[in-house]
Design goal:
The protein contains ten helices and eleven strands. By secondary structure, it is an alpha/beta fold. It has two domains: 116 residues, NAD(P)-binding Rossmann-like Domain (Rossmann fold, 3-Layer(aba) Sandwich), CATH 3.40.50; 171 residues, Rossmann fold. The strands form two sheets. A six-stranded parallel β-sheet has the order 7-6-8-9-10-11, sandwiched between helices. Strands 2-1-3-4-5 form a five-stranded parallel β-sheet, with no helix packed on it. The longest helix is centred in the last third of the chain and has 18 residues. The two termini are 28 Å apart.
Length: 310
């Protein structure tokens, strides 16, 4: 049986992957552009490890399993699933990034609350401000935090907030948007970590962003589609909200002329909040573990639900 691999590996990572099983032939490739035609090695493989262009799946009715190297799978929501094998499974990395992403969320939030973003700029300018900046600084202690989405990342983020005695409200898929509206105006922090799905797109539009406090901080670490980016940049430029930490955007890389680059009190973490020095090695371990389940005919870890969007 063949395994098509679509992930850039160094020599050590490649060796680790190839040693994960001697029962399979691995065809290792780097990532492909979205408009690339299906590679022959892919069409001759029963398993795929990596995020291939979505239209490839419709060209391969015999593919049995694809292990994504991401949590999100929004690019695959629109494929014609009738053209897939009845045996087809898609698994993602649900829970894999929880710790590093939650730490990045806390780091960005504290940076804005404690003025670290401003101090970094002042250092580059060799400019001393001193006492006047003190009155702009805020404490996270006892802050009101709204978690939009309650998957593994926001659960970990909530755990990291425990020492700060924050009051936490959760809005997830079981709640209505009316309930979200009722809690927005009380939040000092709004942390959005939800997948791309028709029900989550543009949830944070101009109307909802205007409901937030002028001092509140918006965190987006799920998918860029949840936010009306024009509305968010407008609110940031006009000081209608207190700041933002943005990991995900609708277009990545973020265009040079995008308004986010010039928004005040805005930290852009460039969709790398989940990164660690051993990230690829851990992904290989995740795949190898799931491969053992596949060989034994056992349930795979983190099988995605196309209808729910996670």
């Amino acid at each position: 049986m063949n395994v098509f691999v679509c992930i850039t590996l160094n020599a050590q990572e490649r060796k680790k992957l190839l040693s994960s099983s001697t029962d399979f032939d691995f065809f290792v490739h780097k990532e492909f552009s979205e408009d690339a035609p299906p590679h022959p090695d892919f069409l001759n493989s029963s398993i795929c490890f990596g995020n291939v262009p979505a239209h490839w799946l419709e060209c391969h009715p015999k593919l049995e399993w694809i292990q994504l190297i991401s949590v999100g799978f929004g690019e695959y929501l629109e494929i014609d699933r009738n053209r897939l094998s009845p045996k087809f499974y898609m698994t993602n990395l649900k829970g894999f990034f929880a710790e590093p992403v939650a730490q990045s969320m806390l780091a960005g939030l504290l940076s804005l609350f404690r003025g670290i973003d401003q101090f970094s700029v002042l250092k580059d300018q060799t400019k001393w401000v001193g006492d006047p900046i003190r009155e702009q600084l805020k404490s996270l202690k006892n802050a009101h935090v709204l978690l939009y989405g309650y998957g593994s990342i926001n659960q970990e983020f909530e755990r990291l907030l425990v020492p700060f005695d924050c009051s936490v409200n959760v809005i997830n898929s079981s709640n209505s948007l009316d309930e979200l509206d009722q809690t927005l105006s009380h939040a000092d922090v709004v942390a959005s970590v939800v997948p791309d799905h028709p029900n989550t797109r543009n949830v944070f539009n101009l109307k909802r962003l205007k409901q937030m406090k002028s001092s509140s901080v918006f965190l987006n670490f799920g998918r860029g589609s949840v936010t009306d980016e024009e509305a968010l940049s407008h609110c940031l430029m006009k000081g209608m909200i207190g700041g933002a930490v943005i990991d995900v955007t609708n277009q990545e890389p973020l265009p040079h002329d995008h308004a986010f680059w010039k928004c005040p009190r805005t930290i852009i973490t460039q969709h790398s909040a989940g990164g660690t020095e051993d990230e690829i090695s851990k992904k290989i371990s995740w795949f190898s573990n799931n491969l053992k389940h596949f060989i034994k005919g056992e349930n795979l870890i983190s099988t995605v639900d196309f209808e729910l969007g996670f």
